Amino acid sequence: MDEFCLKLRSGDAKKKLDLGSDIINYLEDPENSIECEDIGGFIDSVTSWMTSSNFKVSQNGLDIITHLVERLGQGFRLYINTLIGPATDRLGDSRESVREKSALLFVKLMEETVEPQILLEKLTGAYTHKNGKVREEILNLLISTLNSHSSQSLKISHFLPSIISLLGDPTATVRDAAVATLVEIYRHIGERVRVDLERKHNIAPAKMAILTSKFDAVRASGEMMPTAVFTLGTTADGKIIIA
């Protein structure tokens, strides 16, 4: 890996593309060592590629870091904060292939390196990102995390305010994604979500009516998850209990 480090300093896009392909091919072979005198410096340099105006360089940067996550596993925890900003920005890239590779990097981090809750909390800035596509993609990432890791691996209440705020987003696709995310959360958790939204969050009646209709539809469809609670009761002092 050290021989690659010396070449990472080049600012020429063509050289970066060639070098990126060489590094990816090297990392794809599990027999090749990833020992490096300055692995932190290597990761910093490759992470900077994500911000390149050349989408192929950006893709290579995402691919290389994803391979390193797979190879280093828990050992990559030290470097997560370095890539959060650049990788989040790439969720809003104009090219779908770049957005997909950025999302895959976050998925791999949750699989190999860090608990989903911890990573998603580091990504909360994405909900207010200036790029609407980033706001949309963070919601899609939350949905995929729910389905791959289950609601029991997440403290959903931590994310509800951010999701609810996007119900009023100026971009239609973001608003739709926010609704879809709340419906998916309901599918996993059940009636407690409906009650929390009605009692604890100031959602406009028209939007709450849309959510209620969609909650009822998914419940009637028989597609609720085994983790979902269907019946809630109320104590004399108004507290919600599971029946």
UniProtKB/TrEMBL annotation:
Localisation per UniProt entry: Cytoplasm, Cytoskeleton
Mapped HEAT repeat ranges: 159-197
Coiled-coil portions: none
Pfam families, per the entry: CLASP_N
Gene Ontology BP annotations: establishment of mitotic spindle localization; mitotic spindle assembly; regulation of microtubule polymerization or depolymerization; regulation of supramolecular fiber organization
Lineage: superkingdom: Eukaryota
Keywords from the named record: Cytoplasm, Cytoskeleton, Repeat
PROSITE patterns: HEAT_REPEAT
Cytoplasm in keyword set: yes
Alphabetized InterPro entries for the sequence: ARM-like, ARM-type_fold, CLASP_N_dom, HEAT_type_2, TOG
Single Gene Ontology MF annotation: microtubule binding
Domain TOG residues, every copy: 2-224
GO cellular component: basal cortex; cytoplasmic microtubule; kinetochore; microtubule organizing center; mitotic spindle; spindle microtubule
SMART domains: TOG
PANTHER family assigned: CLASP, CLIP-ASSOCIATING PROTEIN
Name recorded for this polypeptide: CLIPassociating proteinlike [Apis florea]
